[in-house]
Amino acid sequence: MSALVEAFATRAPEVWLRTLEHLMLTGISTVAAVLVGVPVGVLAFFRPRLRSALLSGVGILQTVPSLAMLALLLVAFGRIGVAPALAALTLYALLPVVRNTLVGLEGVDDDVGAAARGLGMTPSQELLRVRLPLALPVLAAGVRTAAVIGVGIATLSAFIGAGGLGQFINRGLALSDTGLILLGAVPAGILALIVDGSIAGVEWAADARRHRDARTAGRRLLRMAVATAPLVLLVVPSVLLALGSRGGPTSGGGRVTICTKNFTEQLVLGELMAQVIEARTDLSVDRRFNMGGTVICHRALVAGEVDVYPEYTGTALTAILGMEPGPDDGPDQVMQEVRTRYARDFDVRWLEPFGFDNTYVLLADPDVADSLDWSRASDLADAASGLSVGFTSEFAERADGYPGFVEHYGFSFGAERDLDPGILYQAVAGGEVDVVFGFATDGRIDSYGLEVLADDRAFFPPYEAAPLARMDALEANPGLGPALSALAGELPDSTMRRLNREADEGTGNVAEIVRRFVEERGLGGS
Amino acid sequence: MIDLLKISKIYTSGSPPALDDVTLSVEEGETLALLGSSGSGKTTALKLVNRLEDPTSGTVRVAGRDVSGVDVHELRRSIGYVFQGVGLFPHLTVGENVGVVPRLQGWDATRIRARATELLDLVGLPADRFRDRYPDQLSGGQAQRVGVARALAADPEILLMDEPFGALDAVTRVRLQDELVDLKARLGRTIVFVTHDLVEALKLGDRVAILHRGELHQVGTGRELYRNPETPFVRDLLSQLESQMREAERLLGADAPAPGGDA
Question: CB of B194 within 8 Å of any CB in chain A?
Fold first, then answer.
């Protein structure tokens, strides 16, 4: 709890801003779902043959895992940010809206429908004057459900750079920082309650039959105002704040957008690049950290929504270019390869590497490794079928990940578990799995004192980290390239691991850790 | 006023017809009772008039016009319709319910209000007390009165009533029957109503049409039916009345009042 209070105290303005973004995502998608869902529900009502198809259609949408939905829409839209997030949220909100519209229309008493027809109403008059007004309470309940689900799912929009309270949760997960997680989760929960209560209040206020005493429009408006007050009180300061920050001091020089993936090292690198750019140029930096993975960052960069992000040569070669490193390729060859291809295919430049190689490593608990005499990956060949292994879900699928490892080393583990990068190291240290595939520069290797088992058959390609920048951004901002080059070679493995550990252990936030480092090394320039 | 000519109606092919070659006329200003048990086709016959059903074969004429050529919604608005379920719109006040058809016809608000007042008073629900109530604040009898007022709102020449009092308790039913006798005398409309209650048919109908299993057995005044039943079914039906009267006399003793009048 104290972690939350502390986190909130230092970040109140940002909490308001993220809350506004969150409300906007939820609000717009709910309205869109009503605009689409009510007509679909009406269609289902009038066309019984289409009914089951329409209902199962929106039902299936609901069962698509949220992250998968976001990823699919990201591909469909070809861009990150608010648009695909709104589309995803709208699709999720459709089911309750469509279903409740249909149920509400069908729920009208048969006698009332018979009377409407018998009195000579056309089908559209029956719909608009009788069925929809009577279906309204059920429909409103559907909208409420949709909005509350929306508040929940909107936390995931941060993965594709749409902002919202999920941004705190993502950052908190990446840094294992409970205070940050709560900073996103608690306001999101409160927001869900407020949204639910406000819609319920509007329903209550709008129900004429419940207020037979109050016939005047004025009284009804007053009730409505009271019901929506919490929402209004929340939105107004958020809007003012957002407007205020837009017109703020950031309007000086040009603007560079940096994104990162969602783990500690990426956040440190992103913040480091941002601070160096801010110190050495008059550019302002838009930090879009914590995106949902390699592909999302890559697409955002290629689409021009992001100018800079940190990437690893091996990842680019295998995950983006779909190539395999040659057997004798060293770091320089791999760098040469990706540099040429990125320049040619994407108009993106690989700048000078930071100086460390964050390859995958096989990690074990040191006591276990000692007792079983493990020091190299191939030592595990005989025992592997009785061992459990943990890795990130990205690693599970990548050609330079587990499938490639199995093929290269000729053995596989008995049990496999996909784990969040945040808990990999803890899992092996705590004995929940026997070995994990982690990242060579992760600070938690030192924190938990894990044993690194050598890649003795040289399976993993080099993963030299370097800033990627769009050519046009480099040309438009002549100071950008030189600023980033100041970081060349400044981060050997040990330094990177130390910074990662500091960030993970929460000795100050990432920005402070990076600021200290920049000062210490004089990276801010003259 | 209303002519059903050689009407047959088959709902699902293969099943026995709901109506089989029925020809029947309703004169202007008369009240015709369609009498029969369930499955007799009486409700189907009624619904043909405002095209809630269309015949499989045959012709329906209203005021001389073949209804198959008339806009179905215009036709229904020009004919009052009351049924057992009442079907008041629960989200509208009593006054608004009565004004539904005038609104569809595009009347202005003042005229609709005046008309609703007039009709509520006519059916015995003082407008100043009932206009702003909602249907769930009404008793069954009051709701059906509103149903009648709603059916009469646009001043239709014809009023169709499908077992209008079927769902009411016996006391209320008799009171509403009496009111309808009074009302039809004052309004002089053409009324067709469906019932399975012989006494109700005789009490309200100037003439009674007896339907059984889709066939029209006989049409006539109560007296004609009673004196000259043309089919065994009609004879049996009317003889039930006598046996009921005897039963009542036996139960109540010699001083029970003798049935009088046409019935």
Answer: no
DSSP B67-105: GGGS-HHHHHHTEEEEETT----TTS-HHHHHTHHHHHT
Q: Looking at the whole model, is its pTM more than 0.90? A: no
Contact A116/B at CB under 8 A: yes
Question: A526 pLDDT band (50/70/90 cuts)?
Answer: low
For B166, counting Cβ atoms within 10 Å of its Cβ (0-12 exposed, 13-18 middle, 19+ buried), the class is middle
Q: Residue B83 and residue A112: Cβ atoms within 8 Å?
A: no
Q: A115 and B101: CB-CB below 8 Å?
A: no
pLDDT band at A395; cut points 50, 70, 90 = confident
Size of interface A-B (CB pairs under 8 A): 70
pLDDT in tens, B85-122: 889 999 999 999 999 999 998 999 999 999 999 999 98
B186 touches chain A (CB under 8 A): no
Least confident of A17-26, A221-230, A450-459, B138-147: A221-230
pLDDT tens figures, A300-315 = 898 888 899 999 998 8
H or E stretch covering B192: strand B190-195
| pLDDT(B263) > 60 | no
Q: Under an 8 A CB cutoff, do B86 and A111 touch?
A: yes
Predicted local distance difference test score (pLDDT) of residue B257: 58
Beta carbons of A461 and A314 less than 8 angstroms apart: yes
What is chain B's alpha carbon radius of gyration, rounded to the nearest angstrom? 19
Other C-beta atoms within 10 Å of A410: how many?
Answer: 11
Instruction: Please give the C-alpha separations between residue A99 and each of A90, A135, A416, in angstroms, as whole numbers.
Output: 14, 12, 40
Cβ(B115)–Cβ(B99) below 8 Å: yes
CA distance to partner chain A, nearest, from residue B136 (Å): 10
Instruction: State the pLDDT confidence band at A243, using cuts at 50, 70 and 90.
Output: low
Half-sphere exposure at residue A170, Cβ-oriented, CA atoms within 13 angstroms: 28
User: A39-61, pLDDT tens digit by residue?
Assistant: 999 999 999 888 889 889 888 88
**Calpha distance B13→B16 (Å, rounded):** 8
The candidate with the shortest Cα–Cα distance to B9, out of B35, B40, B36, is: B40
pLDDT tens for residues B24-76? 999 999 999 999 888 888 899 999 999 999 999 999 999 889 998 889 999 99
Q: Which residue in the block uniquely carries the two structure tokens 């006519």?
A: B122
A residues 214-253 closer than 8 Å to B (CB): 215
Name which of B97, B100, B133, B161 to mutate to probe chain A: the one with the most chain A Cβ atoms within 10 A of its Cβ.
Answer: B100
Query: Which residues from A are below 8 Å from B134, CB to CB?
Result: 209, 212
A118, A120, A122: residue with CB nearest B83:
A118
Q: Rounded to an integer, what distance in angstroms lies between the CA atom of residue B4 and that of residue B219? A: 13
How many CA atoms, within 13 angstroms, populate the side-chain half-sphere of residue A279? Answer: 19
Residue closest to B178 by CA, chosen among B124, B258, B97, B126: B124
Q: Give the nearest partner residue to A120 out of B76, B83, B136, using CB atoms.
A: B76
**Does the distance separating the beta carbons of B86 and A119 come in below 8 Å?**
no
For residues A240 and A233, what is the distance between their CA atoms, to the nearest angstrom? Answer: 11
Write the CB contacts of B15 (distance below 8 Å, at least 6 apart in sequence).
none
Q: Which of residues 88-107 of B touch A (CB under 8 A)?
A: 88-91, 100-101, 104
Residue B215 carries which DSSP code?
Answer: E
The DSSP symbol for A160 reads G
